[in-house]
Each structure stands twice: as C-alpha cells, then as structure tokens.
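Bumping my old thread because nobody answered last time. Still need a sequence for this structure:
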C-alpha cells in the first residue's frame, strides 16, 4: 500500500511537472527530484492513511508473540510432570527391590 501511495504521488508530481506547475528540468536530475519529492510527500501521507492497518498488524504480531511465549511454559510444565511421574515410578521400583 505504501508503494501505491508513493506511485500515486510520483505520477501526480510528473503531471504537475509536465504542465509546468512544478519547475523541474528535463533529464535524470529532474526525475530524481520528482522521486525525492514523491518520497517526501508520501511518507507522512502513508503514516496517516495506513495507521489503522499498522495498528491491526501490530496487534496481530503481539498476539502471535504472546502465544509463542505461552507455549514453552506449557511444554516445560509437561516435561516437569513427566519427570515427576518417572521419578515416582523409579522410587516405587527401588522401594520394591530394597524390600
């Protein structure tokens, strides 16, 4: 979406330069100036226009990160429960052999 906003700004700058509203010389330096102008205009424009999408994406990323952080804890607790179960079986077997 940022690329589309930048492209639209560049096309508008080209049209304004074509009709002489923007005093830009022909050639590579003129195109570079138009690209620079389009970048300067599109940056704050995309910041404002895409704020809802940015907030939604950051919320999505936060949810995924929280789920991934919660997963190892549950695995650790499962491993601890399995280890405790194995220890109990081992203790019971040792108690039988020593008796």
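Sorry it took so long. Here it is:
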């Amino acid at each position: 979406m940022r690329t589309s906003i930048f492209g639209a700004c560049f096309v508008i700058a080209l049209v304004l330069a074509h009709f002489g509203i923007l005093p830009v010389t022909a050639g590579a330096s003129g195109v570079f100036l138009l690209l620079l102008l389009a970048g300067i205009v599109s940056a704050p424009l995309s910041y404002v226009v895409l704020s809802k999408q940015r907030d939604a994406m950051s919320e999505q990323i936060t949810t995924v990160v929280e789920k991934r952080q919660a997963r190892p804890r549950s695995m650790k607790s499962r491993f601890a429960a399995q280890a405790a179960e194995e220890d109990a079986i081992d203790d019971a077997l040792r108690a039988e052999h020593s008796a």
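The longest helix spans residues 51-98. Let me know if any region looks off to you.
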